[in-house]
Amino acid sequence: MKYVLVSGGVISGVGKGIIASSTGLLLKTRGLKVTMIKIDPYMNIDAGTMAPTEHGECFVLGDGGETDLDLGNYERYLNITLSRDHNITTGKIYQHVIEKERRGDYLGKTVQIVPHLTDALQDWLIRVARLPVDETKEQPDVCVIELGGTVGDIENAPFVEALRQLRRKAGAGNFLHIHVSMIPVINEEQKTKPTQQTIKDVRSAGLNPDLIACRCKDKLMTSTIEKVAMFCQVETEQVVAVHDVPSTYHVPLVLEKQDLIASLTKILNLDQLESPSKLRLRGATTWEMWKTSTSIQESQQLVTIALVGKYTSFADSYISVIKSLEHSAMFCKRKLNLIMVDSSNLEEESSKSSLTEYRKAWDTLRKVDGILVPGGFGTRGTEGMIAATRWARTNKVPFLGVCLGMQIAVIEYARSVCMLTSAGSQEFNAQVVDPVIIFMPEIDSTSMGATMRLGMRPTHFQPGTEWSQMRRLYRNSPVAASKDTIGGLIIHERHRHRYEVNPAYVSKLASHGLNIVGKDDKGERMEISELKDHPWFVGVQFHPEYLSKVLEPSRPYLGFFAASAGCLDEVMERLESGKGALGS
Description:
- The structure is a single chain.
- The chain is an alpha/beta fold.
- Strand 12, helix 12 and strand 13 form a beta-alpha-beta unit.
- Helix 1 (16-29) packs parallel to helix 3 (70-78) and helix 12 packs across helix 19.
């Protein structure tokens, strides 16, 4: 097993996740089987209870694991399927060691950070690195490990020590360390002192980086690279310049141009690994498709989408949603113009407290090509979401509601069309008169962590829904688990929710035109709603963004974006013919 460690210094959020994902992608284009692990130094067991406005989106895996958003990047870039064990947190590893101590596994010894915790970390990394994550179902060749946080932080110390020991255990030629640093620009001068200091810190902790990835808003000057090499005691070839680019999808190209693969091959002896010709060919094809798909042409049509949500102050709260729209835009050969609209500003109350923001929000909404209402929790801003949904429905503006967004669409339809003026959700009001959205009976109402309906679940398109645009889009998709027959089509998507459409109101909704075209395997849960006489008005209870890939966009997002761009029929035809992206 070969290991690539990606750590960071100077500041957090320096770009470790994208550099780690890009490194993994480049290794995979060489025909290697690659897996990835993320280490997060926070005390939470997982990311499930963390506020999206503080730490970004909680990414849900197929096994229901609630993880750091970087695992979403890994899956999107490498087209792999990870498990909850691929995300290690301080809370999770401490819990693991304490449970072993309670069982008596340590035979009465004094349990300490070194060696017991560090040994447990190494055992975890070695075990999980061997788990198959791609379609080959074989053990990976290379494991890329991203160490979250900043080297030198107190909470990182046990992980750094464990990784130091792992490097020694792996042996020469089997472990490579990339340390990501920041080169700030002050008065138009590129400053290397922060990088010099972070390399000193990481070496004092016992690790010696093989490559130094220098992040900078501008391209690094030759003199800057030479200065970093001189004062960090490395060769210039070991300094990798990573400047700001228009899209994070261009980072692999930046690294490839600097012969990162050659450096990885030399240090890790990758030439000694035998890659089947089939995987090498697939890797080369993937790389060519990546370069073609991620290129942006100035002549491309601009498509404006409004994301109407409650966490709009921090874009990472919706990172998978945003990436899914980007994937769809690339497939359609269009430019995405995404506008975040705080749903609270669309509410009547806002017109009284902040008339300027109210008018600005509505002016924006009236001009967009499509409206998307994503997932979320709590009451705040939901009336604004309902108002936006009503606008999309009545004005024939393409609409996609995801999780909470689907529930919002059901509430709006029940109020406006079914004339259930008191319709609402038990999440917003436990005593609501017409609870069209209810708390799922089997869900634990007292504990918060990992108690939702999580992970991959089947959805069955119902008989008589052959007209459905969603059903047509899902045919021959990667998430389709069956062929589309007269009995229906089965798909698998990832879920994360506590509330659902109340089955008692489904017949009334359907009789008034809101079709439930997809249900769970028992026919009890409402999974997909769709209007027939609308360019695109779809709600999904699941989170299709979790399975969207750069070269294989999520079908609900693709359909929504294509409808907004006015090219839905063309996209449908391309998918059915197997020709792929428009213009390819």
